[in-house]
Recover the amino acids of this structure.
C-alpha cells in the first residue's frame, strides 16, 4: 500500500511517500503500526484530532476499513482557497 | 464545468471575460478571486497539494454545487507552488439565470474548497516558516449548507 | 469607490482585472455582472434612468455598503439605453480582507440597486413592448439587510 | 417646480418633464392638482400604490412636504440591475 504524507506530517516523518506492507484492517490499526516504528512517526501521529486521512483519494475517518485500499494519505486540516 | 489545478498564474480578467461571454440564457455571473495578503513580513506563500486527489475533490465540490443550485456553468482554478503577496491564488465563477443562485453557489464553492480540498499553505517570512492553521470559522462556515 | 453610469458597453474582463490588481491587503475580490437574458423573442432591452438621481442613488448605496462591511473598495457600473440579449447591463465588484464581507456586500449592492436605483427596463419584442414589472421577490430581498 | 415623469408614467402623461406653478404643500396635494387637470394625468395617477416619488432626487413618500422643493419625479417601482 502507498502511504502519503503532506504538509507538516510530511516534514515530521521526513518523506512524502512510502510503500508499506501491512495487514492493518483499519486506518487506526495502520496508525498504531506506524507509531510503533520510530519516534518521528510517534511525533507525527501524536494527536489524531489534528490529522485528516484519505483512503484512495477520498476523505474518510480513522475507523475506515483498508481492505482493497491502494493509497492512504495523512495530512493536517486543509487550508485551500 | 471546468476545474483547473496549475502552478502557473492565471489571467483573472481574461478568465472572467471568457466565462461571462455569450451567456444569453444566464442573467447572473459571479466571480471570486483570492489574493495572497501581504500581512506582516510575509515573503512568499507556498501551497502544497495532493496531485490526483485535488482534481477529484474540486470536481466533486463543483458537481455538488451544480446539483444544489440551478446553474449554467461553474469554473474553478486553483494554483499551487510559491506565490508572492498580491498574486492571485485561485478563482471560482458561476452563472445562473438568477443572481441568488449564482452568489450562493460561489460562496458554497469557496467554503468547501477552503476546508475540503487538499491544499496546505505555508507562509515563508524573515523570521521563519509557518504552516497556516485551519480556522474554526472556516469549519463553521460549512454548517450553513 | 467608483460609480459609473454610461450608455456605452464596458469591458467586464478589463474591469475585473483592474479592480483586482495590486490588492496586497485584500484577500477577497467578488464581482457580479448582469446579462440581458434572451427570453422568448426579446429583441432589445431598453433601460431608462433618471440622470442626476441615478448617480446619487448608486453612490449612496455603495457608501452604505462600505459603512456596513469591512471593505477595501467598491465598483459599480450601470448602463442605460438599448441592449441586446447577451450584452452586459451592469457590474458590481467588492474587495475585502475576508471573503464573507466581499460576498455579502456584493449581494447587498445588487439587492439595493435592483429596487432602489432609478432604472426602468422595457422589453421590446416582435409582439410588442412591455415595461418589466418589479417583483415581490426583489422587494423581499431587501428585508435581509 | 420641475415635475419629471419616467417609464410608463412618462408615456401615459406624454411628456418627460414640465414646469408647474403650484402651492401644493405635499406630494399628495400636487397629485390631486395634476389628476384634476386632464384625463391622461388621472390615468397615470390612478393607483398610487403602483407609483414611487422622489423629491429633489431623493426617494420619499406621498406625505412628503414640498416646501423649498425644486424637482419632483414620479415613476413606477424601479427595476435596475
Amino acid at each position: 500500500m502507498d502511504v502519503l504524507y503532506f504538509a507538516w506530517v510530511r516534514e515530521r516523518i521526513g518523506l512524502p511517500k512510502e510503500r508499506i506492507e501491512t495487514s492493518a484492517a483499519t486506518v487506526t490499526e495502520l496508525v498504531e503500526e506506524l507509531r510503533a516504528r520510530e519516534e518521528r512517526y510517534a511525533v507525527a501521529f501524536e494527536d489524531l484530532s489534528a490529522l485528516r486521512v484519505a483512503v484512495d483519494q477520498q476523505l474518510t475517518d480513522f475507523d475506515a476499513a483498508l481492505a482493497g485500499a491502494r493509497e492512504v494519505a495523512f495530512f493536517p486540516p486543509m487550508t485551500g482557497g | 464545468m471546468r476545474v483547473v489545478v496549475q502552478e502557473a498564474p492565471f489571467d483573472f480578467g481574461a478568465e472572467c471575460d471568457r466565462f461571462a461571454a455569450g451567456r444569453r440564457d444566464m442573467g447572473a455571473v459571479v466571480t471570486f478571486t483570492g489574493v495572497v495578503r501581504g500581512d506582516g513580513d510575509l515573503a512568499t506563500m507556498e501551497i502544497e497539494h495532493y496531485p490526483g486527489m485535488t482534481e477529484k475533490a474540486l470536481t466533486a465540490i463543483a458537481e455538488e454545487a451544480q446539483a444544489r443550485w440551478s446553474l449554467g456553468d461553474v469554473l474553478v482554478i486553483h494554483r499551487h507552488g510559491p506565490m508572492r503577496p498580491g498574486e492571485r491564488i485561485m478563482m471560482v465563477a458561476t452563472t445562473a439565470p438568477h443572481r441568488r443562485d449564482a452568489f450562493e453557489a460561489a460562496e458554497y464553492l469557496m467554503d468547501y474548497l477552503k476546508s475540503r480540498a487538499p491544499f496546505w499553505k505555508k507562509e515563508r517570512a524573515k523570521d521563519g516558516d509557518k504552516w497556516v492553521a485551519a480556522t474554526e470559522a472556516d469549519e463553521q462556515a460549512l454548517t450553513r449548507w
